[in-house]
Amino acid sequence: MGLLLHLSLVVLLAAAYPGGRSALRRRAAPAQGSGDSSPAPSETKALFWVRISPNFMAEPPGSSVWLNCSSSCPLPEGFSLRTGLQRGQNISGPSWVSFQLLDVRAWSSNVHCFVTCAGVTRGATARINTYKRPHSVILEPPVLEGSNYTLRCHVTHVFPVAFLVVSLRSGGRVIYSESLERFKGPNLANVTLTYEFPARPRDFWQPVRCHARLSLDGLVVSSRSAPVMIDFAWSSVSKPLASTSIAALVVIFLVVGAAYLRKYLLMQSQA
Ligand SMILES: *[C@@H]1O[C@H](CO)[C@@H](O)[C@H](O)[C@H]1NC(C)=O
Ligand SMILES: *[C@@H]1O[C@H](CO)[C@@H](O)[C@H](O)[C@H]1NC(C)=O
Ligand SMILES: *[C@@H]1O[C@H](CO)[C@@H](O)[C@H](O)[C@H]1NC(C)=O
Ligand SMILES: *[C@@H]1O[C@H](CO)[C@@H](O)[C@H](O)[C@H]1NC(C)=O
Question: Is 79 in the pocket of ligand 2 (CB under 6 A)?
């Protein structure tokens, strides 16, 4: 019995972590009941399944959730839950137990449910992730430094940072994008992205926005900043152009003035 339990745990863990670190990515397309155990060929007596539903959730930190653990076993001897999360109430039926978990804050937790049927124990695993939509996404007005514009975007109170992608877009075009996978911190965080933007004439007068996107296995949470304009007038390229146009304007005034003056002088001489 002890050995069997151990074996089913190994199978369960292997099923839950098919590729070690890549397990999270693989679950991007969660197969129906991916955490289910499958009966070993030598244990035909123990042909029953255990399912936990839903097997993936993404909730704001502090949420309470319900998970339903069910089994095809006609007479289950017992259901048990293994989790580091705080337990709440439960409701049960003949072949299922619905468990409440309180105040979920860890960014990712696995919850295992075990069912014993005819002396054989099997399990299924669910994952609960937590996320927090950014409190704000603010793009500072661009600052011209040398030939580049410095774009600085602040994303505040966001979680988990490892699932965040921050991008800068001019018009519809992505000018820069950064994935923050390497930041595994367990807390809400502020993120500041700074990018030196070598703006070209096509970028002038285009609205630039900063986008913050959290992707949690199918759930996508997007926020964006208010637009800022790359101000043509402050660009080093625009200075000669601007003075050219002022010169042109002055020339036009002068030409018009001279034309009026000639006309006036002509009228004067004819009078
Ligand atoms: C739990 O799942 C079982 C089997 O799918 C279903 O019959 C039952 O109604 C569910 N219980 C709750 C509380 O959702
Ligand atoms: C359901 O809750 C009761 C009371 O909190 C507890 O004694 C019982 O063990 C729970 N059932 C399961 C299957 O965990
Ligand atoms: C994040 O930014 C907010 C608002 O700018 C500030 O109040 C807060 O203290 C910052 N938090 C951290 C962890 O830096
Ligand atoms: C301008 O930005 C580009 C791209 O970010 C960078 O390669 C280049 O070194 C920057 N030039 C200056 C003068 O900062």
Answer: yes
6 CB burial (10 A radius; 0-12, 13-18, 19+): exposed
Q: Whose CA is nearest to atom 9 of ligand 3?
A: 190
Ligand 2 mutation pick, 90, 98, 111, 121, max ligand atoms within 8 A of CB: 90
Start-to-end C-alpha separation, the chain: 125
Judgement on whether residues 144 and 162 belong to the same structural domain of the protein: yes
Give the tens place of pLDDT for each residue, 181-200: 988 887 788 999 999 999 88
Per-residue pLDDT tens for 9-20? 222 322 332 333
Question: The pTM is what?
Answer: 0.60
| Pocket flag, ligand 4, residue 236 (CB < 6 Å) | no
Ligand 4 atom with least separation from CA of 148: 1
Would you say the CB of residue 90 lies under 6 angstroms from ligand 2?
A: yes
Q: How remote is the CA of residue 102 from the centroid of ligand 3, in Å?
A: 27
CATH number, domain containing residue 211:
2.60.40.10
Please tell me whether residues 157 and 199 are part of one structural domain.
yes
CA distance 130 to 108: 7
CB 170 within 8 A of CB 208: yes
Which residues in the chain come in under a pLDDT of 50? 1-44, 234-268
- Ligand closest to the CA atom of residue 116: 2
* Structural domain boundaries, residue 197: 136-229
**Domain final residue pick, 115, 130, 145:** 130
225 and 142 within one domain: yes
Backbone angles phi, psi at 122, to 5 degrees: -130, 165
Residue 29 included in any domain:
no
